[in-house]
Write a structure and sequence with these properties.
By secondary structure, the chain is an alpha+beta fold. Helix content is 42%, strand content 19%. Strands 3, 4, 5, 6, 7 and 8 form a 6-stranded antiparallel β-sheet that branches. The chain is globular, with a radius of gyration of 29 Å. The N terminus is likely disordered.
Length: 555
Amino acid sequence: MRESRILRCTVPVIIFSCIFIVGWFSGVVSGRRAAIQTARESYLEYVADLNAGHSLSVNKLTATLALIDSLYVDEIASDTLVEYLLPLLMEHLDPHSDYIPAEDMQAINEPLEGEFDGIGVVFNMATDTVIVLNVIPSGPSDKAGVRNGDRILRINDSLVAGRNVPQNDIVKQLRGPRGTEVKLSLERQNIDGLVEVSVVRDAIPLKSIEASYMIDGNTGYIHLAQFARTSYAELVKALSSLRKQGMTSLVFDLRGNSGGYLDQAIAIANEFLPKGKLIVYTEDRHGNRVEEYSDGKGGSSDLDIAVLVDEASASSSEILAGALQDNDRGTIVGRRTFGKGLVQQQIPFIDGSALRLTVARYYTPTGRSIQKPYKSGDETSYYEDIINRYITGEFFSADSIHFVDSLRFTTPGGKTVYGGGGIMPDIFVPLDTLDVTPYFIEVSGRNILYRYTIEYADRHRAELDAITSIEDLRDYWNRQTTLLDDFVRYAERNGIKPNRKEIEISRNLMLSHLRAYISRNTRLESNGFSDCLRPFDTTVQKAVEILGGDAKSGT
């Protein structure tokens, strides 16, 4: 199909070339003379390049667009054709080269820039109602009097409750230029009637560190969700805070982190490495090589570290993990990473759109290519690789992963590592699915488990608001001994009959999820969420064990 489109673009060049050459020699109606002259100039430029033996790709495309613009029977905007052509061109390159239309640029760049303009709440729409899970402290909504647990029924007099309004549309209504006002009509527990508030939008920070707390007396935990503009600064602040709490070793979680800014990955690697260590190098098609070395100014080169990775850790995550692994710094724990080792350069256009064009490849300090194999133009197979890993058993057994011997490398400390795509961890931890039963799948898939946690948070709002530390949270859950039984009764009232055998198998899994989602409604937000999942997270447990900490500490 695409080949035929290309043919339809190239054949008219020849046909139209003949048309305007004949017209040129025989004399055309004067009203079309200027248009034909424009097309003729593009054609003559094309012929000149042909005679000179130059590459014709760009000139051929330019000439075709000029011919359509000048001679095509119907009026058509050339910009429309360009918007159609550019994505097709990118599809025939590697899987990461891309064309970004102007209207998509903000949504793509915003998560990496460190802030956006909005009202400062975290919300969910599990019951077709906008439920405020958390109000950002000292943010616009906090100052206006919005509280955790409030239901937003109207936004600027527009009813949004019970209307199946898409979540993205809610986001668009709540966000807007800083300094502008948005009116909210809130339903609040134990308050008759609606609570009306006006919120003045302001800059809202976007955090790339989702969780940072102490697992035990010596072991800190940090989960970095992406490499944004502020990631390194956030990390330094988090490390300083954990150091003050007694941290001597760190579990650094990069699972699910698909990458972001390269300079942030380099700065973070530098934080953990002594002076003079190669962090990463890039190489373009001409063999030009750019190397990045540690400068010895990082403050955490003494810290014992275990880095967690999985199949969703990509790009900058792989650069960081590879830099530490190849320099024999810390231990990489988890499953093989995604395998994105292509460098994109963003090239802006004056209309606000941009090309993200692959210009080089990343290599780890030992010379390993991070990039997994790909076939130009076959993006589907490239991304289905993760599914194939699952099918072939790679998620469950390291023995199912086979490396080419020619891609074997050795670190300065004598450790064997392999190239060919992704970073293979030092310690493999299989995906744990033993606790997953049909009962758990049913209550999760039907959203019953999550709806229960929202209702629980409403019933216990005062108790949850009183929780201010991880220790408070752990103590709270140690005292709640009937949570699972209460949930099973709730699920039965909502149509899911209890299966005692399956419930017992999934007991720990369900308890961890119930506690985690409820804890997200406390002031601890993601810290509470993460700490509730941690005792049943086999990868975190393995990392803590390697570092010599207490994997069973807490709930």
